[in-house]
């Protein structure tokens, strides 16, 4: 989450999905203001997690789609531009999950 804050990600949410989703335990959801920022956020998360936790994430998607994912298995980082975040509304889709942290 610090990597997202450092790169000026917006509306960051940590969502606990343990016992709800079979494929992950947590979503971290963040909004970017541009495609360039999406790429910077994804790269920042991968780099910081590699250095601080020795975990390797897999990036999926491209900035031009408005949605990128960094997948760590038990944690999935969802990076959206504002339009795609409104379109997918993951917080509503996974509303059974518990919001553990929200940074505006």
Task: Tell me what the structure shows.
The structure is a single chain. The chain is α+β, with helices and mostly antiparallel strands and 104 residues long. The chain has one domain: Beta Polymerase, domain 2. 34% of the residues lie in helices and 34% in strands. It is built from 4 helices and 6 strands, in the order αββαβββααβ. It has a 6-stranded mixed sheet with strand order 3-4-5-2-1-6. The longest helix is centred in the middle third of the chain and has 19 residues. It is globular. The protein starts with a helix and ends with a strand. The mean pLDDT is 95.
Q: Distance N terminus to C terminus? A: 12 Å
The CATH architecture? 2-Layer Sandwich
Q: Regions with pLDDT < 50 over 5+ consecutive residues?
A: none
β-strand number: 6
Strand order in the sheet with the most strands:
3-4-5-2-1-6
Question: How would you classify the quaternary structure?
Answer: single chain
Radius of gyration: 13 Å
Shape: globular
Layout: helices, strands, pairs:
Layout: H1 2-6, E1 10-16, E2 26-32, H2 35-53, E3 58-60, E4 67-71, E5 75-81, H3 82-88, H4 90-93, E6 98-103
Parallel strand pairs: 2-5
Antiparallel strand pairs: 1-2, 1-6, 3-4, 4-5
What's the gist of this structure?
This protein is an alpha+beta fold and 104 residues long. Helix content is 34%, strand content 34%.
